[in-house]
Amino acid sequence: AVMAAAAPGAAIAAAPIITATSIKVNVSLAEAAARAAATGADGVGLLRIEHMILGMNKTPGWYISQNKEEEFITELYNGIKVVLDAFPGKPVWVRTLDAPTDEFRNMLGGESEPIEHNPMLGWRGIRRDLQSPDQFRMQIEVFKRLWDRGYDNLGLMFPLVGHPDEFLKAKALIAGWGVDVDAVELGIMVEIPSSAILIEDFCKAGISFASFGTNDLIQYTLAIDRNNELVSSMYRPKHPAVLKLIRDAIAVCRQYGVECSICGQAGSDPKMVEWLIENGITSVSANIDAIQKIRETAARTEKRMILDAVRLKNA
Ligand code: PEP
Ligand code: MG
């Protein structure tokens, strides 16, 4: 190959790092969209909408009880649109609402939230949405309008799914509300051990993608409260049981051609990402500040894997 000679004294721009692994970014606020896009990420592997919704200071139930659904829909639509606009042509996986009930307590409508001893194990994620379809529908209306406006880079990700039936129920509801569910990406968070164990059934149920929510997957696999300092030393992302669940699930997803990603904090840890790529993951979503390092890690790991494969072939 002929390399173009740089003019003497001219600064040579660093070549962009190309990776086979899709390097995505986690986003929570519309205000962070530009900074997230500036990392050059290949998409958004987790758009948390809790901050947008909690920031409204009224519970979803309040909007419904006051017949003010349109207010909720407009605000959420505007927030998500900013992120979609920052990532044209790149996938943006928006997670449906996943806030525990105690986080709604002090808002308008908070008095109607159930009181739970264990909110993290309770009425949140897809469970809440399946039990209160009116609240689910309000969110889906936002996505439907965005799809109708041509935002085909928008994908939905359901949190805290533990059984394929929950995915199928959510999909059926969405179809019933007029969305062409075969034309859009619908995926799940793998953050309850049961969904990792049953990943093959989820693939057969037609998920478009799966993303490890390791923050929860670790706490539920190891029975370690992720917010309890007394046991934080036992919160081990690389615990062999966690790694086994992840490795096996990646292998099954590959078999079914289902894109497999990670959006928990472990996806921002270079050592973990190296291990994930070695074990076949094809997508990683990291925090904004970690993107560059994760991209370098992915490139280095991929290069080493290629060299190892060639050496093995030539041996
Ligand atoms: C996770 O559980 O890893 C995750 C990304 O979700 P959250 O941290 O919002 O629970
Ligand atoms: Mg989670």
UniProtKB/TrEMBL annotation:
Family, per entry: Belongs to the PEP-utilizing enzyme family.
Range of the intact protein held here: 449 to 763 of 763
Role noted for this protein: Catalyzes the phosphorylation of pyruvate to phosphoenolpyruvate.
Domain PEP-utilising enzyme C-terminal: 19-301
Domain of life: Archaea
Phylogenetic classification of the source organism: Archaea, Methanobacteriati, Methanobacteriota, Stenosarchaea group, Methanomicrobia
Protein name according to UniProt: Phosphoenolpyruvate synthase
